[in-house]
């Protein structure tokens, strides 16, 4: 009741707005960054697994440490990018139209953490699929058609792209 | 200020008694760089207050700089979810 009254008053006589965060409201949102970061995390997982049976050495340690660090970093990028779109771009009408958005976003958060914590190819592939679903919804909301194509670089997996031009 | 304050939420702000601000108070600030923003007081320094956002992605306290008394427009009394 209070909310709807405030919403009504706000429509008639808009309240003064303040920003609760300091992001510049540029309006630029794109799930592609998350998808590329996910591909990187998958690639790092593949590289770590490929080094599984090698004998430990300083060089081995250096390489694997770098792969792990990049996997950590890019899984976190996935989570950050999706959080921003979910928190800043999606509004009530989208949540009404796509009621699975909260659950989808939450599953991305959980899988992102799993990919960070473990060397788990299956989880990373599940994460990519969830991100593809997320990207399809995002572009549908923007009124942009999408298609799925294999990324032209390793790990050469299917990714959602917007059909532009 | 997510998750405590989300896009579209309403806040009720008191513009009086601003000389009685305390730690953890939420304040609306007219910031020369970031415009009108809401932040939480996290410290007092010479010449003003230190403030922080609650989101991990908020601009950090150092970048927000010292908030002088005359930059504070009001104290947040109440939050109401907007959606």
Characterize the structure shown.
Chain A is mainly alpha-helical. Chain A contains six helices and two strands. Chain A has helices at about 1-10, 30-50, 60-90, 90-95, 100-115, 120-140, and strands at about 145-150, 160. Chain B is about 5% helix and about 45% strand. Chain B has a five-stranded antiparallel β-sheet. In chain B, a hairpin with a 2-residue loop joins strand 3 (about 35-45) and strand 4 (about 50). At the A-B interface, helix 1 and helix 3 of A face strand 3 of B.
List keywords for this structure.
heterodimer; A: 165 residues; mainly alpha; two-stranded antiparallel ribbon; elongated; B: 83 residues; mainly beta; five-stranded antiparallel sheet; 43% strand; globular
Provide the fold topology.
The complex is a heterodimer of chains A (165) and B (83).
Chain A: H1 2-12, H2 32-50, H3 58-89, H4 92-97, H5 101-117, H6 121-141, E1 146-150, E2 158-162
Antiparallel strand pairs in A: 1-2
Helix pairs in contact in A: 2-3, 2-6, 3-5, 5-6
Chain B: E1 10-14, E2 26-31, E3 35-45, E4 48-52, H1 61-64, E5 72-80
Antiparallel strand pairs in B: 1-5, 2-3, 2-5, 3-4
Distance between the termini of chain A: 45 Å
Mean pLDDT of chain A: 91
The beta-strand count of chain B equals 5
- Runs of chain A in which pLDDT lies below 50 for 5 or more consecutive residues are none
- How far the N terminus sits from the C terminus of chain B, by CA atoms, comes to 16 Å
Shape of chain A: elongated
Largest sheet of chain B: 5 strands, antiparallel
Helix content estimate of chain A = 55-70%
- Roughly how many Å is the radius of gyration of chain B? 12 Å
* Strand order in space, largest sheet of chain A: 1-2
What structural class is derived from the secondary structure elements of chain A?
A: mainly alpha
Uncertain runs of chain B are: none
Biggest pleated-sheet summary of chain A = 2 strands, antiparallel
Secondary-structure-based class of chain B equals: mainly beta
Task: State which percent range the strand residues of chain B make up.
Answer: 35-45%
The topology string of helices and strands of chain B comes to EEEEHE
Q: Specify the helix fraction band of chain B.
A: under 10%
Shape of chain B: globular
Q: What strand order characterises the main sheet of chain B? A: 1-5-2-3-4
SSE run of chain A = HHHHHHEE
Strands of chain A, total number: 2
């Amino acid at each position: 009741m209070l909310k709807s009254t405030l919403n009504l008053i706000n429509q008639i006589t808009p309240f003064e707005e303040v920003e609760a965060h300091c992001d510049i409201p540029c309006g630029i949102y794109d799930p592609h960054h998350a998808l590329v970061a996910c591909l990187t995390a998958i690639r790092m997982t593949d590289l770590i697994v490929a080094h599984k049976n090698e004998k430990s050495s300083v060089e081995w340690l250096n390489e694997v440490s770098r792969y792990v660090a990049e996997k950590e970093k890019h899984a976190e990028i996935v989570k950050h990018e999706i959080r921003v779109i979910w928190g800043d771009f999606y509004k009530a009408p989208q949540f009404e139209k796509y009621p699975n958005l909260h659950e989808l976003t939450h599953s991305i958060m959980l899988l992102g953490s799993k990919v960070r914590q473990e060397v788990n190819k299956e989880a990373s592939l599940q994460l990519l699929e969830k991100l593809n679903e997320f990207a399809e919804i995002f572009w549908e909301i923007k009124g942009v058609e999408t298609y799925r194509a294999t990324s032209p670089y390793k790990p050469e997996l299917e990714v959602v792209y917007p059909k532009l031009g | 200020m997510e998750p405590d304050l989300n896009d579209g939420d309403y806040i009720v702000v008191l513009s009086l008694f601003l000389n009685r601000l305390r730690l953890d108070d939420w304040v609306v600030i007219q910031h020369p760089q970031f415009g009108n923003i809401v932040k939480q007081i996290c410290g007092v320094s010479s010449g003003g207050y230190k403030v922080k956002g609650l989101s991990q992605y908020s601009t950090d306290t150092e970048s927000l700089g010292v908030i002088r008394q005359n930059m504070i427009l009001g104290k947040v009394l109440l939050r109401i979810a907007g959606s």
